[in-house]
Specification:
Distance between the termini: 21 Å
Strand order of the largest sheet: 1-2-3-5-4
Helix content: 25-40%
Number of helices: 5
Strand content: 15-25%
Largest sheet: 5 strands, mixed
Radius of gyration: 16 Å
Structural class: alpha+beta
Length: 155
Amino acid sequence: GEMIRDIGHAYHHVFDERGIHVQMDVPSEPVVVSADRNRLVRVFRNLADNVARYTPHEGNVIFRVEPGPETIRICYQNPAEGLTASDLPYLFERFYRGEKSRSRQHGGAGIGLAIVKELIEAHQGTVDAELQEDHLYICVELPRKSHQKDGRPAV
């Protein structure tokens, strides 16, 4: 939760400049996962950057952390302007950018979400995207405890 709040704060100037309203649904108590902090920071910064680029002026975004007994789910929600259901299977592929007519306007090389997927899968997690009522949800799920192949806890 703290990491998500810190990243949201780091992007507050971008969100403020574009009039984007950010809602943080983050538990106040710590949620611990066994992971490489620097790589997770990169994941969540890439997701925040994606939200900042593709949310229209005066749009609403939600960063949500949902801790469960064995996993933690972190979701970023923003308006899905220009995306269709047919884009979803390709969002995490390198160099893919949905909504081609505006992709040059938003910049980026189309590798941010591919990096997110690679880093999350390296942590034995999953990432997915779905469209609901004209909103894009990108959700990362990480195990609360990581184990090596022999069943011992990872360090």
